[in-house]
Amino acid sequence: MGFLKEFKEFAIKGNVIDLAVAVIIGGAFGKIVSSFVKDVVMPPIGMLLGGMEFTDLAIVLQENSIGPAGEEQGPVLLNYGIFIQNVVDFVIIAVVIFIAVKALNSLKKKEAVAPTPPPPALTKSEVLLEEIRDLLKK
Predict the structure, then answer these.
(1) Which InterPro entries match (predicted)?
(2) What is the pLDDT of residue 1?
(3) Which of 21, 33, 74, 136 has the greatest number of CB atoms lying within 10 Å of its CB?
(4) pLDDT (0 to 100) of residue 114
C-alpha cells in the first residue's frame, strides 16, 4: 500500500507531467528539425557540391561479402556520409534550442526586472516608533 501511494504522489507531481510533455514535444520537434535539415538545408548544399548527397558518401571496405549461409550479401560500406548528415542535424537542432532558451531567458529577465510596488505608507504610530528608536540610538 505505501509503495502505491508514494508512486501516485510522485507521478501526479507537476514536474513529472511537465517532463513527459517536454519529452513528447521534443520528439516531435526533433522530427521537424530533421525534416528541415534533410528537405530544406541539405538539397542546396548538395547542389553546391555538384549534386552530391551526404548520405551517399561511403567507403567500400569489401566489395562482396558472404553471409553465414553462403549467400552473397553485397558490399560492406563505411557510411561516413550518414554520420556527416547526423552531425549537421545535431548542430542545427542545438542552435535552434540555444536560440529558444535564450529567448525564454530574456523573457524571464524582463519579468524579474518588473518594478515592485512601493511599500505601504507608514502609520503615525510607526513613524513615532521610528523617531523614538532613532533618538535612543543617539
Answers:
(1) Mechanosensitive_channel_CS, MS_channel, MSC/AndL, MscL_channel
(2) 64
(3) 33
(4) 65
**Does some domain include residue 95?**
yes
Whole-number average pLDDT of the chain: 82
Note the pLDDT of residue 80.
92
- Asked if residue 87 is part of any domain, the answer here is yes
pTM to 2 decimal places: 0.51
For 103-119, b where at least 16 C-beta lie within 10 A, e where not — what string?
eeeeeeeeeeeeeeeee
CA distance 18 to 24: 10
∠ CA 24-96-25, rounded to 5°: 10
* Residue 57 pLDDT exceeds 70: yes
End-to-end alpha carbon distance in the chain: 66
137: in domain:
no
Whether pLDDT at 43 is above 70? yes
8 A C-beta contact, residue 81 and residue 57: yes
Look up the domain containing 57 and give its range: 2-126
Specify the CATH number for the domain of residue 12: 1.10.1200.120
Under 8 Å between Cβ of 54 and 85 = yes
